[in-house]
Design brief:
Number of helices: 14
Structural class: alpha/beta
Number of strands: 15
Strand order of the largest sheet: 7-8-6-5-4-3-2-1-9
Strand content: 15-25%
Helix content: 40-55%
Length: about 375
């Protein structure tokens, strides 16, 4: 099974923290959608596995597209690929865009999952992030989505925000739980260089929260959500039983996916390909531009470690042995020994995992297990 990701790179307003590729030049929207139809047709042979299980519209702000534009792209995917197993069709959305008629149109078009970018239920914090919705509007959007028939909602939250602290986070968690979403994504704020926050940091006007604050806020998120019955199944993701994000889980499982649109990434199991196009070049009607990287055996092993150790299940020695040989398993087992003694890793019946309370250290721990370069 494989997935299709469609990157909608448009925003009405640029969030202060976001470093994904996006544009506020909405005048290009129709041309970009037309080009996406063309790219889907031209790249229909990219995936070795033509059976599509998940379709994900990400951004940017995909909810800036009309229902007709979104439904048209979905139909094009269904025409080009085997969608007999398509079980999850997700749209990322800004609360401001989710009117009742829009939501009902999405349901009629076959969308069955919404990822709503709430980020916070504190209006001052939302203004600090330069979000365009209010806390009240976010709650209204969730209620409208339920009334329209959506039974699979994921809400995004951000924590580790300088100047707001644990009490604001505690209230955010209370309000998100009151809405009873099936899935919650809770991300620690990262200050990236090429963002409004990054530029503030470079000018000395902003500092990231201290490590001790990060640890306390992470623990508050983990304890609050798991106590409420959510499975902490990936570093930043929590789900009710049966509602893990199937599309994103496929990334962590190393499955194939086709990415469509400016700056979108694709993976065919052997190589990565990413778009070099801007909105302007993509809409021009010219040849699509890509860069590609063929993964070496070392790359594939390190990627296996990186993706699987992000999850609650961790790595499977049997699976590793089948893919990379017994020598790779023996090396990992040996290098994991001191980390197991320090309880930075833990053993599972199948292999190894990072305990949830250590997820904040995941990048460092995973890096320690990487196979080094030549």
């Amino acid at each position: 099974m494989a997935g299709v990701y469609i990157h909608i790179p448009f925003c009405k307003r640029l969030c202060a923290y976001c470093d994904f590729y996006k544009s506020v030049r909405l005048s290009y929207l129709e041309e970009v959608v037309a080009a996406m139809h063309r790219e889907l047709s031209e790249r229909r042979g990219y995936l070795r596995d033509q059976r599509i299980e998940t379709l994900y519209f990400g951004g940017g702000t995909p909810s800036l597209l009309s229902v007709e534009q979104l439904a048209g792209l979905k139909r094009r995917v269904e025409e080009l690929f085997d969608c007999s197993h398509l079980g999850e069709v997700t749209l990322e959305a800004n609360p401001d865009d989710l009117t009742r008629s829009y939501l009902e149109g999405l349901r009629k078009a076959g969308f069955n999952r919404l990822s709503i970018g709430v980020q916070s239920f504190d209006d001052e914090e939302l203004r600090w992030m330069n979000r365009r919705h209010t806390a009240q509007r976010a709650e209204e959007a969730v209620r409208e989505a339920r009334a329209a028939g959506f039974e699979n909602l994921t809400l995004d939250l951000i924590f580790g925000v300088p100047g707001f602290g644990e009490e604001v986070l505690r209230r955010n968690l209370e309000r998100v739980l009151a809405l009873e979403p099936e899935h919650i994504s809770a991300y620690h704020l990262t200050i990236e260089p090429d963002t409004a926050l990054g530029r503030k940091e470079a000018r000395g006007e902003l500092c990231a929260v201290e490590e001790s604050i990060s640890e306390r806020e992470y623990a508050l998120v983990h304890e609050t959500l798991t106590r409420a019955g959510y499975d902490h199944y990936e570093i930043s993701n929590y789900a009710r039983p049966g509602f893990r994000a199937r599309h994103n889980s496929a990334y962590w499982q190393g499955r194939e996916y086709l990415g469509i649109g400016p700056a979108a990434h694709s993976f065919d199991g052997r190589s990565r390909r990413w778009s070099l196009d801007t909105v302007e070049s993509y809409a021009s009607g010219g040849e699509f531009r890509f860069e590609q990287e063929l993964l070496t055996e070392r790359d594939r092993l390190n990627e296996y470690l990186m993706t699987h150790l992000r999850t609650a299940e961790g790595i499977s020695f049997r699976e590793m042995g089948e893919q990379f040989g017994p020598e790779a398993v023996a090396r990992i087992e040996k290098e994991a020994e001191p980390l197991l003694l320090q309880r930075l890793l833990s053993s599972t019946p199948k292999g190894l995992k990072i305990p949830a309370e250590r997820f904040l250290l995941s990048d460092h721990l995973i890096g320690m297990l990487f196979e080094p370069g030549e």
